[in-house]
Amino acid sequence: MSTQGLAMGQRTPMERTLRPRESGWVAPVLCALFVLSWALDAELVGEAASIVPPIRWVIIVSMCLATPFVSMRGIGRGWSIAFFLGALGFTVLCNGAFETSFPIYARILGAGILALFAGTLALSDRVKIARFILIASAGIVIGSVVLAVVAPDRAFRLIGLERERLYGLTPHPGIMGYFASLVATVFGSSALFSRRSTMLRLRDGIIAGLGAVAVFLADSRTGEIALGLSLLCQFGMTRLVKSGWLRRSIVLPWVFFASAILASTILPIAVAADAIPISVREDQYSGSTSGRIAIWKLGLSDFESNMVVGNGLGTTFATEDLGADKNLLFYYHSVLINYLAKSGIVGAIGLVTLLLSAPFVCLAAARRVARQRSSSRDELSLLHFALAACTVTVAFASVEAALQNLYPSFLMYFLCITLPSRATT
């Protein structure tokens, strides 16, 4: 069956109604604009930087306007997203910090609604969303590498005493590392594992190489780990599909991936609680490492003050003095500690549900591919995108800002749940 026939066979009456207007270009463009609006440094537009926040809110409101078009199929595909948004929304209403928490929640909510809408769409439209996001992400990475060559004084900034890192077009090297590792993984897996023409694989290999260079120039240790792990997962998924193991059951592989995700997210708690002793070696990274440990400990302390619904998404500590009065809009460099402190046990349950659903979806999509005699290129592309988005986001969520205040990561992770086509049995 052709890709077009497959897509037509999956459409509901609502999808057929939406296709000529909303689903054709609105969802892909909104996804790309959301990614670009939060990934690009507002200072790039100079004195006009003040227009960036209103533009971001226009995009978020536009994303939320897709709510009436979300079908039950979209909610069924993204039930874990709906559960996470519901749990987080409950804590926003109950912890007494609505004024500071709602703006943050609205950004997450917009990403979730758009992802649920994406799950409503036909295969061809979901592929278009992934392509738009990859084009936007690759543009950020390639543009940053070019900037590092033509204007290094603008592209690099000094962190600490000795660490000059690539910011490029982004406001932080961690954001640079996130997008660079994602681009390097997706295009690298296409170059290494696909059956496309030599020229297309060469093109993808060059883009992946530029992504790897950006990770190195950003001096992103998390990005290096994410890139290695993601390529390993891509290779492992390819072998699983070819071996035929997934045709029978995905339970055992899911338990393995779910255990790895839980281990990576719980590790900062174990370190902060001194269950795992860590000795900080004196090098250029020692300040970063010791600072993270101190932040993790403070996050657990904040969790103890309101364990059920947390202290609010916008309430946390000052960035320069850990003993100072609380300041707004900072994060705990650990996604689980972050939500324990800010949304309590209720929010943490929603988060864990969300984290564990993505590998199940990726494996279910891989099982669908394994069961087909000849899988479509679109389904393979979505599988590679979803697996990369899942792996890179989890790696950055463990010790960085992903799923905390790096807002494009929410959309990436949500989409890795709703975009792939899954086996139904």
TrEMBL record:
Topology with respect to the bilayer: Multi-pass membrane protein
Keyword Ligase: yes
Bilayer-crossing regions: 55-72, 79-98, 104-123, 130-151, 175-193, 253-273, 345-370, 382-403
Cellular compartments per GO CC: membrane
Compartment annotation: Membrane
Keywords: Ligase, Membrane, Transmembrane, Transmembrane helix
Name of the molecule in the record: O-antigen ligase domain-containing protein
Organism from which the protein derives: Bradyrhizobium zhanjiangense
Lineage, top ranks: Bacteria, Pseudomonadati, Pseudomonadota, Alphaproteobacteria, Hyphomicrobiales
